[in-house]
Amino acid sequence: MSESKRKRSWAEPFKIKMVELVHMTSREEREAAIKEAGYNTFLLKSKDVYIDLLTDSGTSAMSDRQWAGMMTGDEAYAGSVNFYNLERAIQKYYGYKYIVPTHQGRAAEHIISQLMIQPGDVIPGNMYFTTTKLHQELAGGTFVDVIIDEAHDPVNEHPFKGNIDLEKLEKVIKQHGADKIPYVCVATAVNMAGGQPISLANLKAVRKLTQTHGIAIIHDMTRVAENAYFIKEREEGYADKSVAEIVKEICSLTDGATMSAKKDALVNIGGFLAVNDEKLFDLARNMVVIYEGLHTYGGMAGRDMEALAIGISESVDGDHIRARVGQVAYLGEKLIEAGIPIVKPIGSHGVFLDAKKFLPHLSQEVFPAQTLAAEIYLDSGVRTMERGVVSAGRNRETGEHNYPKLELVRLTIPRRVYTQAHMDVIAESVEEVYLNRDKISGLKMVYEPEYLRFFQARFEKL
Ligand code: PM9
Question: Which of 129, 297, 367, 377 is catalytic?
Fold first, then answer.
C-alpha cells in the first residue's frame, strides 16, 4: 500500500495543561443519587457524575488564550473594551452588523420573539427547540415544523436532515399569509434532530422563497461551525472552502441570529442577538436594558465577553472542528459496531440513542428515553439527557403530552474536555445497559413544572 493510502489518524489539536479530578461512585451511591434526583439527570449533583454528557452547553474547556483574555476584563459598567472586541469578532466571523450581548441564548430568543412576533403569528422552523418554541409561544406565536420528513426518521441517512421542506414552507405561507409570518427560524446543526446539518443549497432556496414573500430569516446559530464542517465534508463545491468561509456564507443568507455562545463559541456563559436592520437593533438595544443589562454588556462580565471574542475565532478553526466532530463520530461508530440503535448519520455535538428501538417494550407513556438516561447513569455514572416526550412538553390547547417521533437519549460531548479513553468507557456502559435491556421497566411522572418540564420534572420507578 502506498504511503498516501495508509490510514492516518487525527488527534486533538491541543495539549492538556491542567486537569480537574472527577469522583468515581459505587453502584449503591448512584442508586441513592438517581432516586433522590427523581430519576431526572438534570437533578443529579455534578459531584455524583463520573463522565458528564448532559450537555455541550457551557461545558467546554477554554484555551489558555481565552483564560489570558479573562484577565484583560474591563469591568466598566458602560462601553467596556471587551464589548467592542466582541462586536468586532462577530462582525468579522459572522458578518452581522449589529449585536446585543445577552447572558445566554434564550435571552436573545426572548428579545427577538417579543419584538417580532404578534399574537396569532406563526413561525415556521426546521424542528422545534425547547426554549426557542416557548419564547415564540409566550409572545403569542405558534411554531410550525417545516423540516424534511427524513429528519423524523432516526435511521434515514440523508446527509442534510436539517433541511427545510420547501413545499411544507410554501404551504404554511399560503395558508396563513406572509403577513402572519414574522420570520422563518432556521437552525444550523439541528439539535432535536440529532445535530443534523442544513445544506447551503437548501438555505439558498429558502432565502429565495422567503424573499419573494418579504419574510425574514432568523438564524439559530448556536452550532453554526459544526454545521459548516458537515457542509465542507458533504456538499458539492465546498470541499476547498474553509469552515470560516462557510460559516460566513451561512450567516450572509439570514437577517439576524440568536446565539447561545455556550456551545460552538467555547465559553462557559454568554450569548447574543445579532441583526442587520438598524431599526430592529434600536428596539433590541432598548429592550436588553430591561431584562439583561446595559447594551454594552447584556448580562455578561467584561472578562466573559473577551473569552467569547477569542472563542469565536477558535471555533471556526478547521483543525479544532475536525477533532470536535471527529470525537463524536468516534463514539458513534463504536456504538454502531456494538449494534446499538442510534440516530444516523452521527450528529455534530453528540450521539443520540434511539430509545424506542433500545427499549421496544416500553411505550412513550412510560418515558423510555428518561428511563434509559437513568439506567446509563446507574450503570457507570455517565450522565446523559432525555430528548423525547418529556422535552416535548404538552400541547397548549389540549393539555395532552406531545408525542414526538424521536424519543432520544443524547450523549452530548463537551468540547475539548474528554479523551478517547472516556469515549471507550461510555460505549462499554451503553452496551452493558443494552445487553440487559429486557429487565428495564419505565417511569411515571410525579411532579411536572409548567414550563420546560424536562429540567425539573420528577419520576418514580414503575
Ligand atoms: N441548548 C442543550 O443542552 C441547553 C439546555 S437545554 C434547554 O442543548 C439551541 C439550538 C440550543 C439551546 C440550548 C438554546 C438556548 C437555543 N438554541 O441554553 O439559553 O441548543 O444558552 O440557549 C442546550 P441557552
Answer: 129
Report which ligand 1 atom has the smallest distance to the Cα of 55.
3
Q: What is the 3-state secondary structure (H, E, C) of 301-318?
A: CHHHHHHHHHHHHHHCCH
Distance 105 CA to ligand 1 centre (A): 7
Domain count within the chain = 2
Q: Which residues contact 51 (CB under 8 A, 6 or more apart)?
A: 22, 380, 381, 382, 383, 418, 422, 425, 426
Q: How far apart are the CA of 410 and the centre of ligand 1, in A?
A: 13
Whether the full predicted model's pTM is greater than 0.90, yes or no, is yes
In a domain, 150, yes or no: yes
Tens of pLDDT along 208-247? Answer: 999 999 999 999 999 999 999 999 999 999 999 999 999 9
**CB 116 less than 6 A from any atom of ligand 1:** no
The separation between CA 135 and the C-alpha centre of its own chain, rounded to angstroms, equals 16
Determine contact, residues 121/182, Cβ cutoff 8 Å.
yes
Q: Which residues in 149-174 are b (16+ Cβ under 10 Å) and which e? A: ebbbbbeeeebbbbbbbeebbeebbe
Catalytic residue among 263, 324, 410, 453: 263
Exactly one of 25, 41, 59, 130 is catalytic; which is it?
130
Q: At what angle do helices 318-337 and 243-252 cross, to 10 degrees?
A: 90
CB environment 409-442: b (16+ within 10 A), e (fewer):
bbbbbbbbbbeeebbebbbebbbebbeeeeebeb
The verdict on 86 and 214 lying in the same domain is yes
| Residue 426 resides in a domain | yes
Could you read off the pLDDT of 68-124 as tens digits, one per residue? 999 999 999 999 999 999 999 999 999 999 999 999 999 999 999 999 999 999 999
Cell 467555547: give the residue: 266
Domain end, chosen from 315, 337, 358, is at: 315
Residue 89: closest CA among 277, 305, 235, 275: 305
Burial bucket for residue 234 (CB in 10 Å: 0-12, 13-18, 19+): middle
Please state, in angstroms and rounded to a whole number, the distance separating the CA atoms of residues 453 and 285. 31
Q: At 176, which helix (H) or strand (E)?
A: helix 166-176
Contact 42, 248 (CB under 8 A): no
Mean pLDDT of the chain: 97
Any idea which residue has 495543561 for its cell?
17
Domain boundary among 315, 336, 365: 315
